[in-house]
Design a protein that fits this description.
This protein is mainly beta and about 290 residues long. It is built from five helices and 14 strands.
């Protein structure tokens, strides 16, 4: 079913509480997961579930999904030629579940929009984690997949002596909300029709970032008055969805995650977390997810 605005309200995806402490100083090649929590059955100790299995956000397979991604910028010194000011990039991950998962979640007082509707025919046993002790580590089969882009090659030669089969290459898809740079023009809103001097900037939204007007600025440049969310549409290709976040600039992978003051990932902490412990996470700020209904 396509998104129905009468029934589809926003669900908010963000990393688990305290993610900054967990990731601080760790390799930034390791992605930050949304939601990044533990799967319900894994946390409950259900046999066959690895205690490290991540939770996903239930989505109706085949439905149209829209997400709103807030623009968090890597906080870099613009004089550093190796690290360009840029945004974070996001990777969408799918997982399939079985009808048994639906039965379990529907009997555990799980909210309706968090109940699993599985499309695997049955719950099968998969490979054990430890072949030497298969009885204790036998795991239920749950496949996961990347959201992909299909690339078609140019039409092959019509020469019968040449292999005329066409080829489609599937590559993992990365989604990057491109704000351009970390300069002040990124956030610039329009001016208000007032006689204030200097002119005050109008706001398209509020409550995501501080929006202090600067009396010393001619045009109040740098006030985050413009829109910072980037909507993106796609189809649900699994029963559950996760989103992984990484820095978009490959050169930045050599630098560990750092959410402290005036460091690379302070902007990420400001959007999704505590702004380096300055305040609690803002509950309504995150990636908004709109889906159809099952």
């Amino acid at each position: 079913m396509l998104v129905d605005p009468q029934y589809s309200t926003a669900r908010i995806l963000k990393p688990f509480t305290g993610f900054e402490t967990k990731y601080q100083g760790k390799s930034s090649a390791v992605p930050i997961a949304f939601p990044g929590t533990i799967d319900r059955q894994a946390a409950d100790g259900v046999p066959g579930f690895d205690p490290h299995l991540l939770a996903g956000l239930p989505v109706p397979l085949g439905s149209r999904i829209m997400i709103w991604i807030p623009l968090a910028l890597v906080n870099v010194d613009e004089t550093d030629e190796d690290l360009d000011p840029t945004a974070y990039t996001y990777q969408i991950v799918w997982r399939l579940r079985s009808s048994t998962d639906y039965i379990y979640t529907s009997t555990q007082n799980v909210p309706v929009d968090e109940q699993l509707v599985g499309h695997l025919r049955k719950r099968d046993q998969g490979a054990p984690n430890d072949p030497a002790d298969p009885t204790a580590t036998q795991r239920i089969f749950l496949p996961s997949a990347l959201k992909t882009i299909a690339y078609e090659q140019a039409e092959p030669s019509a020469d019968p002596e040449v292999n005329a089969n066409g080829s489609i290459n599937l590559r993992g898809e990365l989604v990057t909300p491109c704000g351009g740079s970390s300069d002040s023009s990124l956030w610039q809103g329009p001016l208000l029709p007032t006689a204030d001097s200097p002119p005050n900037v109008g706001l398209t939204g509020q409550g995501v970032l501080p929006q202090l007007q600067d009396p010393s600025s001619t045009l109040n440049e740098g006030v985050p008055g413009g829109p910072i969310y980037h909507p993106y549409w796609f189809d649900a290709e699994g029963d559950e969805m996760m989103i992984f976040a990484r820095r978009a600039t490959p050169a930045a992978f050599a630098v560990p995650w750092d959410f402290t003051d005036n460091t690379l990932d302070l902007g990420f902490s400001n959007i999704y977390g505590t702004n380096n412990g300055a305040r609690p996470p803002i509950p309504s700020v995150g990636i908004y997810v709109f889906t159809g209904t099952p």
